[in-house]
Design goal:
With 158 residues, the protein is an alpha+beta fold. Helices cover 28% and strands 21% of the residues. Helix 2 packs parallel to helix 3. The longest helix has 17 residues. The two termini are 21 Å apart. The mean pLDDT is 84.
Amino acid sequence: PLNCYFSQYCSAFPDIDCYFGSRGSFFEFKPKSGSFQANPPFSEEVMMAMANHMISLLEESQGPLMFTIFIPDWSSPMTPAIPRLDNTPFRTVYILLQSREHQYITGNQHIQKLSHYDAVHGTRVYVLQNDAAQDKWPVNKEVLGDLRQAMSCNRSWS
């Protein structure tokens, strides 16, 4: 949980991370409704499994369900998760954040002065929503502007 920002999250090591707020493996996480953020490990297999799991959850959902996903822009060669996310009918938003124009929280903030670093690759941001989530949490230009500003390299961190 060194690079964990939220008080609850899914993790690969729930037996240890449960003491720090882990809700267990993402692949065993089966929410019926809610809005969730995902920044999976940058592994092609994990990203594809994540996309498949989210789409299955959305297909089965009855309450408002939404996922905001952050993955690297690995388009040359194309990682299989990209066309899977591009082509799902649940995709309501896609934006590309260019390399060195946005930041991530570093996992080394406990030993470094800097808590953020400039991303050396582009980041694809997807929003997947069912119809109920589109009504409850509309993603408009203002929301997307806030997201870009929050991840901007020009933001001052306190």
